[in-house]
Amino acid sequence: MKNSPHEETPGGAGSTPGRTAVATLAGTTLEWYDFFLYGTAAALIFNKQFFPSLSPTAGTLAAFSTFAVGFIARPLGGLVFGHFGDRIGRKATLVVSLVLMGVGSTLIGAIPNYDSIGFWAPVLLVALRIIQGIGLGGEGAGATLMSMEHAPAGKRNLYAGFPQMGTPAGLVLANVIFLVTNALLGDGAFTSWGWRIPFLLSFVLVAVGLLIRLRVTESPSFNRVLAQENVVRFPLLESLKVGFPRLALTLLAVVANSAVAYVFMVFALSYGTQQLGYDKQFLILSVTAAAVLWFATIPLWTKFADRHGRRTMFIAGSAAILVWCVAFFPLLNTGNSVLAVLALLGMGLIIPVTHCVQGGIIADTFPAHVRYSGSSVILQSGAILGGGLAPMISTALLNSGGSSTGVTWYLVVICAISLVGAVALFRLVPEGSEEPAAVRAESLSGV
Question: Predicted confidence band at 256 (pLDDT cuts at 50, 70, 90)?
Answer without folding.
Answer: very high
